[in-house]
Structure formats: C-alpha cells, structure tokens
From TrEMBL:
<dbReference type="GO" id="GO:0046677">
    <property type="term" value="P:response to antibiotic"/>
</dbReference>
<dbReference type="GO" id="GO:0003700">
    <property type="term" value="F:DNA-binding transcription factor activity"/>
</dbReference>
<feature type="DNA-binding region" description="H-T-H motif">
    <location>
        <begin position="29"/>
        <end position="48"/>
    </location>
</feature>
<dbReference type="InterPro" id="IPR009057">
    <property type="entry name" value="Homeodomain-like_sf"/>
</dbReference>
<dbReference type="Pfam" id="PF02909">
    <property type="entry name" value="TetR_C_1"/>
</dbReference>
<dbReference type="GO" id="GO:0000976">
    <property type="term" value="F:transcription cis-regulatory region binding"/>
</dbReference>
<dbReference type="InterPro" id="IPR036271">
    <property type="entry name" value="Tet_transcr_reg_TetR-rel_C_sf"/>
</dbReference>
<dbReference type="InterPro" id="IPR004111">
    <property type="entry name" value="Repressor_TetR_C"/>
</dbReference>
<keyword id="KW-0804">Transcription</keyword>
<dbReference type="InterPro" id="IPR001647">
    <property type="entry name" value="HTH_TetR"/>
</dbReference>
<protein>
    <submittedName>
        <fullName>Tetracycline repressor</fullName>
    </submittedName>
</protein>
<keyword id="KW-0238">DNA-binding</keyword>
<keyword id="KW-0805">Transcription regulation</keyword>
<dbReference type="InterPro" id="IPR003012">
    <property type="entry name" value="Tet_transcr_reg_TetR"/>
</dbReference>
<dbReference type="GO" id="GO:0045892">
    <property type="term" value="P:negative regulation of DNA-templated transcription"/>
</dbReference>
<feature type="domain" description="HTH tetR-type">
    <location>
        <begin position="8"/>
        <end position="66"/>
    </location>
</feature>
<dbReference type="InterPro" id="IPR050109">
    <property type="entry name" value="HTH-type_TetR-like_transc_reg"/>
</dbReference>
Amino acid sequence: MGRPRTPLIDRDRITATALRLVDAQGEFSVPQIARELGVRTASLYHHVDGRDGIVELLRERVCQAIDASMLGALPWDAALAGWARSYRAAFAAHPRVIPLLMAAPVRAPRVLDQYEAAVGVLLDAGFAPADVMRVIIALENLILGSALDLAAPETMWELGDGADDTPLLARALAAQPEGRADAAFELALDACLDRFRTLLDETP
C-alpha cells in the first residue's frame, strides 16, 4: 500500500488539535494530540520540537488574528490603541491559552515581527530605549488581563441575600451599564496612554 496523498499529520493539524484541547481543558499533552490524530506519539516529533514547539505554534496561531497593520501607519498612540484592541480580541477568543504562553519565551518569528514593529513605533515617536519594553509590557499586562476578563461572566459579583450587608457595592453594581469588561478595558487603556504620553514628554 502506498503512502496516502494527504499526510495524516502536519504542523497545521497538530496546532489546530492542540488549540482545540486547550480551549476545552486548558492544557494538552503530546500523547493526547497523537491520540486525537490517530497516530503514534513518536510521529509528532518528526513535525514539531516537542511540547515547547507546540506551545510556540499555538502562540503563532493565536497571534495570526492580531491586526498589526496600524503599527507604523498611525500616530504612535493611535497605533498602540488599535493594536491593543485587536490583540485583546485575539486572545479573548482563546483565553485558556494565555497561561501556557505566559510561561514560555517568545520565539515565533511572525510574533517577534510584531514586537519589532511596536518597538519601532515607540522609538520613532521619541521614547527612550530604556522605556520601550516597559511600555510594551505594561500594555500587554492590561491586554491579557482584560482578555481573561472578557471571557468571564458578565456578572462577577453575586450578592444574593447579603446585599444589605454591602449596600455600597450593591449600589455601584446597580449603576453599572452592560459591557463592563469593554468599558473597563477602554478606561484602563486611556489611562495607560495618558501615562505613556507623560513619559514621552519627560524624555530628554
């Protein structure tokens, strides 16, 4: 019997399977992916560099959904804001992948290209080199935390029969409009950008 015209596995199918497992259970293992694909575990190592390689493929897959076209095309603050919104949406679609990616260094070339573009935007705007990465890291902390919040229930505080014990909280919750996660993200993003502008103004 000859080889099948379509390979049983390739990097794309491995990545898709791993992402499906992470979305469902928050984790994956190489043997589990092999079982899902109906192949031997050893076969996967012909296509990927073990678990670490699969994690990086997951990063690349999720980050493909980020629109980075505004980096370098808009003023620095508008570019960062647009990038942040798209970045958040991409990870909000797969929030359970965030802990896996946060524990591994970024190596995927396409993802590094986005960071290169973001660094270029900040340097061109006049930020000091020593400030560039802390600006990006601060923005990412906001983005990823908000992506997790976006995947959370709309109602995160359930007072029940104890509402009388927390009247101030009950009042604040009653006044809260729908879309709390989006509103909180935009408020925090505005605050970050304001601080970044101040930092830029203070740059010698």
